[in-house]
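Section 5.1 Outputs to date
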Amino acid sequence: MEYRRLGSSGMYVSEITYGNWLTHGSQVESDAAIKCVRAALDLGITTLDTADMYAGTKAETVLGKALKGVRRESYELLTKAYWPTGTGKNDRGLSRKHIMESCNASLKRLKTDYVDLYQAHRFDVETPLEETLGAFDDLIRSGKVLYIGFSEWNAAQIAAALKIQDQKGYYRFVSSQPQYSMLWRVIESEVVPLCEKEGIGQIVWSPIAQGVLSGKYLPGQKAPAGSRATDKKGGAKMISQFMTNQVLTAVQKLTPIAKKVDLTPAQLAIAWVLSNSNVSSAIIGATKPAQIKENVKAAGVKLDKQILSEIDAVLAGVVEKDPAKTVSPNPRA
């Protein structure tokens, strides 16, 4: 495992982050989830990502159990707030009320006094940005949060937030958590240049495009039983954007490229993401320890320009680059 600075902050994160979206408390039983976390730690993964709403708050609870007895200073714990965590009118969004209540609830579920990185899970169009940023700043000053970030914000939203943080003397954002993969590159034209300028690092999710870039989904054939594409709890909906014959046919052409550099297609996908200098870490999920062991092999891999060019040529026509695709649905809609 290798480690990178998170943006221009002083905190280092592992190149591979273990995330428990759509797994802990949902696809994976508690005992299996704990084995995955322990396997990740044994393999040098020190950065662990979750969110208050994953599996209806159960994911944080499982992660808290998995980390029992592990020296708190040895890992970086990341969580988020925004999406609904209850039926109440204030159990969602980025109001001061919800941020404070959500953070306190996350700390209890995670069985810790602080989180290393607290993130706005989307941009809240209903709450004044000053209110959100003020609450985040107070969490840092209270010691409950060490650093702050956001997920799936566009360049204009990021710039507006940084301006307020500078004017008010608030702690600045140090991280962005966008979807990013060979197939989904919407951050490249606007978000990445701004973040590079402002010292914000990317901790990207879905580097394997929810498993599509592993090559296991074949054009014209049914998805394998037990795969994410068959998960009716959320996985199937998310992966559907990539489940076209055109995309799946192009992805199959990545296999010989991966073999050239002695990687699996999934490892190639992760290594490709990490080839971007603004990426601090790539989040992987897993239902079995063996999957983590395989994907960790992408850490430290350097892809040369020829390989990168071959990947671009193979995927030409199926890559999404439109920055307008970065959106934040209203959590009250």
